[in-house]
Every structure is written in structure tokens, then in C-alpha cells.
Amino acid sequence: MNIILFEKHELTPSPPPLEVILKPRDKRTIHLLKVLRKKRGDLFDAGVLEGNWGTGRIETITPEGELACSLELHQAPLPRSPISLGVGFPRPIQLKRLLRDLATFGVEKVDLMGTDLGEPSYRNTTVLTDGGAREALIQGAIQARDTVIPVVQNYPSLTKWLEERPWSERNPLLIAADNLRPQGTFAQLNPAAQPLLIAIGSERGWSDRERDKLEAAGFCRLSLGTRALRTDTACVAAVVLALEKIGTLGYA
Amino acid sequence: MNIILFEKHELTPSPPPLEVILKPRDKRTIHLLKVLRKKRGDLFDAGVLEGNWGTGRIETITPEGELACSLELHQAPLPRSPISLGVGFPRPIQLKRLLRDLATFGVEKVDLMGTDLGEPSYRNTTVLTDGGAREALIQGAIQARDTVIPVVQNYPSLTKWLEERPWSERNPLLIAADNLRPQGTFAQLNPAAQPLLIAIGSERGWSDRERDKLEAAGFCRLSLGTRALRTDTACVAAVVLALEKIGTLGYA
Questions:
Q1: For residue B250, what pLDDT is reported?
Q2: Residue in B185, B228, B252 closest to A143 by CB
Q3: Same domain, B213 and B98
Q4: Are A151 and A109 in contact (CB under 8 A)?
Q5: Helix axes of B92-104 and B132-143: crossing angle, nearest 10 degrees
Q6: Residue B228's closest CA among B123, B99, B154, B117?
Q7: Which domain holds residue B57?
Q8: What is the nearest CA distance from A15 to chain B, expressed in angstroms?
Q9: In chain B, which residues have their Cβ closer than 8 Å to the Cβ of A249?
Q10: Is A252 contained in some domain?
Q11: Over chain B, what is the mean pLDDT?
Q12: Domain boundary, last residue among B75, B104, B127
């Protein structure tokens, strides 16, 4: 854990400073005491989900191992990466990893959708409703010391997604990753073109029917290379190439 | 499986065409019959590990489900990506994924090594000796329809690796990924600089002692961005950025 994140409802709101109690069996307690070997009075990096980050301090440790911490959170959240994705619903095992990695890169939004060549049964996973997806997103944010997680939405099909155009207000550059019938390459991305919306198909890519629909909706098909990538790997590759091209990968 | 791969020793060598028997319970048999729904006489993409690729044909299917196939393998292996990596030994669960993804990108070599800030116990995994690593590499190659897998070697420490310089004959450009104390960025990579050798630290990066040793050995420290990535994600990000910069990501 590169930062200890709290949910807003966990915080005792007033008077300042913010306070929070961590139960003995809480993963964060275990990380602070066992992995980081923190003692009473020690500081740690802390943040509140969807809010600020800064410094926490262990004020007391009970004999049972419960922590009382104070929080000074004066840093605004990290800037979001100006990228949203529409992704063909992947295998459940890939889905968590994909969400985790996309949260690490700080993307704004991840729309999951059925595709013609995707496996329909993948959409039966409970990961989106049982808290698994949210946990993966938070893990990814923690990796990047971020406090904000991408918004995840679920669409039955690419067609439905294109009909609803849940991005229309932002007017982003529309890109569909397509190694088989590309019109250009990610290398040609215009640095000024942001925000970006990147559609990534399922493992077996897009059907020609879907290519037509994407083109009619204003999407440009760009290649990620000749080697076929897994959906999760393709998402990381597309995001990192796009961030580099538009100059927002972010350098220390 | 995007291609059915065989080991050399599985092939009946003469006279041409090559022949191969697939047992009923073999994963490849199951993939051909159940997933791809192939019948007698049907063709499939086939290759031999470390060798050519081309077309296989199902000649007979016994009542027990054993396949006899003929192979016409006249295509030379895909070109290798001119990249090798030295990677701080990751968590065992990450190691397989990392090897799989690096095989998909067709890198030449992956040297694993202990690092100052890495967890020493990670090196106790049996994945490198029990066939797990090789299986992950083959899975990665199959994803990219490649027939060649990266060479994987294991070094006790970065120091030992730098002493042995297992790359000296190739004289590559030496890069160490370092988001905390970079001297430049992956965006600045010279397109003519290849082959590349990229060192990627463990989850917690390099120690200053290791930075000094890397610099003395001729490595330039380049940033992958301000967001801290997992080791496996950092490997994918570094490889895809490097391939794009040197123009060998490969476009259809």
C-alpha cells in the first residue's frame, strides 16, 4: 500500500483534525503495524477516497491493536489522466486486473460492454456488484497514491454504448484500437488531441459490423501493433502510448 | 490459443509432411475440437517451438478423440523485438503474468534478479524450475502467434548481473526505469537506439547504491511517469513505449 486510503464515512468529522479508528484486523492496520512497522506517534501517507491526501499520525494503539489516527489532508487529488475507455467485457479474472491497472493510470472512466466476438458468459460475473471491482479500483489507486477511482459503467453491447454516447458533452477524440484493419497507428496521435476516448475490443477484436458502427460514430481505428494482445495488456498499452503522446504521462 | 504450438520432440520427422499425434486429453486437442469445433480435414494455424509456423490439418480422429495431424510449416519465426529486460524479482503471482506478457511482445531475454528493495523471499518460488515459467512464456507466445520464447535467466542480485554483463557482445543502449530520480524520460528515446536493454526495479524501485552501480555500468535512468506502477505493469509500459519509439511496435 503506497498510501492508506479511508472512506469518507470512516472519518470523525469535527472538530479538526480529522480522526479515524482502524480495527485490529483491518488490512490497513496490519499494513501499518506489520509491514511498515509503525509505532505510536509515527506518520504515514493517507488520503480519503474522492478527496484530499496528506499525512496521518498514529495517536494511540490499544492493547488489542486498534489504532486511533489523526489526519492532515491538505493536498488536492492528483490530476486525472484525460482518457476514458470503452472495453469489450473481458474474462472475469482479467477484469479485476484491468480495472486495477486503469485506476493506477488515473483514467476518468471505464465503460464495459458486450461485443460481437466477446464471450457472452463473461458478463455474468458478479465482480461489478459484489464489491470486487471497487476493491480492484481502490488497489490500483493506492498503487499510484491516488485518491480518486475511475467511474465504471456497464453496457449490454457496443451498439447500445454508441447509441447512448455517454461521452458526448466532453467531445473527446474517438479512437478504436484495431490491429487487423487499422486506419493509422497510436504513434500518429496528435499531442493536442485530448481528452481521448479509446475503445478496445474483446480478445478476438471487432466484427466488421462493429467497425462500421464505430466509424459511423466518428471513431478512428488505430493499431497497437501486429502482435495480438490480451484485452488487459491492450488497455495498458493503449493508455501508456496515449498518455505519452499527449504529454501527460507525467514526469517527476 | 491463437496458434497451436508443438515441441520439436513431438513431431514425427520423416518423410515430409511432418506429423504429430495429439492425445484426447491434451489441451490443444480440446481447444481444436471443443473451442474451434474443428473436424477431420480442417486446417488450423500451427507452429513448432523455436521453429517455423504454418498450417496444420486434422487427418484422423479416433473414436477416443486422439488426433493425427499433418503440418506444413514454411513460415520463418516472427522477428524478435530488439529489447531485453533485467527485472527485479517480482511476487510469484506477478512473475508468470510478466513472463507471459513479455513473450507476447517478443522480447529477446528476461533476466530476473534480486534487488536491494525487493522482497528476498520472492526468489524462493519454484516457478522457474517446475515448468510454470516456461508454460507462461509459451502462453504469451501463442497469444502473439509467435513460435519463439524469450530466454529467462536468474541472477542473485543487480550487482552480480552488472558484473557478468550478460549483454556485452550486443552493445545495446542501457536504460534503467526510474520514476523517482530520472535523468530523462522514455519519450526522449532515440529511434535509432536499438537493441535496448531495460532494467526495471522491484516494486519499491532502486536503492541509491543501485542507482550508482547502474550509472557506473552505463545505464541511463528514464522515467515512466509520476504514477508508481506494479513491476508487471511497468514492464509492459516500458516495452510498449520503447517499441513505439524505435518504430518496431509493428503495424499491420
A1: 60
A2: B228
A3: yes
A4: yes
A5: 40
A6: B117
A7: 4-75
A8: 33
A9: 185-187, 224-225
A10: no
A11: 92
A12: B75
> Please, is A143 exposed, middle or buried when counting C-beta atoms within 10 Å of its C-beta (0-12, 13-18, 19+)?
buried
For B95-153, what is each residue's pLDDT tens digit?
Answer: 999 999 999 999 999 999 999 999 899 989 999 999 999 999 999 999 999 999 999 99
- Helix then strand then coil, in percent of chain A rounded to 5, is 30, 30, 40
- A10-19, A146-155, A179-188: which is most confident: A146-155
Nearest to A227 among B105, B185, B225 (CB): B105
State the DSSP code for A190.
-
- Residue A225 cell numbers, joined: 501493433
How many domains are there within chain A?
A: 2
All 3 cell numbers of residue B73? 510449416
Angstroms from A227 CA to nearest CA on chain B: 5
Residue B209 φ/ψ region, left for φ over 0, alpha for ψ in the -120 to 50 degree band, beta for the rest:
alpha
CA–CA distance, A124 with A103 (Å, rounded to integer): 23
As for the ipTM of the complex, it is 0.92
Is residue B252 predicted with pLDDT exceeding 50?
no
Q: What is the CATH number of the domain that holds A34?
A: 2.40.240.20
Q: Note whether A237 contacts B233, CB cutoff 8 Å.
A: no
With H, G, I as helix, E, B as strand and everything else as coil, classify residue A228: coil
Based on the fold, state whether residues A68 and A107 are members of the same structural domain: no
Residue A51: its pLDDT value, please?
A: 95
Q: In what order do the strands lie in the sheet with B173-177?
A: B151-155, B107-113, B81-88, B196-200, B173-177, B220-223, B184-185
**CATH code of B225's domain:** 3.40.1280.10
**Residues B18, B12 contacting (CB under 8 angstroms):** yes
Beta-carbon contacts of B211 under 8 Å, excluding residues fewer than 6 positions away, are B176, B178, B181, B221
Split at pLDDT 50, 70, 90, the class of B249 is: confident
Nearest chain A CA: its distance from B242 CA (Å): 10
B249:A225 CB<8 A = yes
State the CB neighbour count (10 A cutoff) for residue A189: 20
pTM score above 0.90:
yes
Closest CB to B104: pick one of A185, A187, A227.
A227
Q: Which residue of A has its CA nearest to B231?
A: A143
Quick one: cell of B82?
530488439
Distance CA A99, CA A139 (A): 9
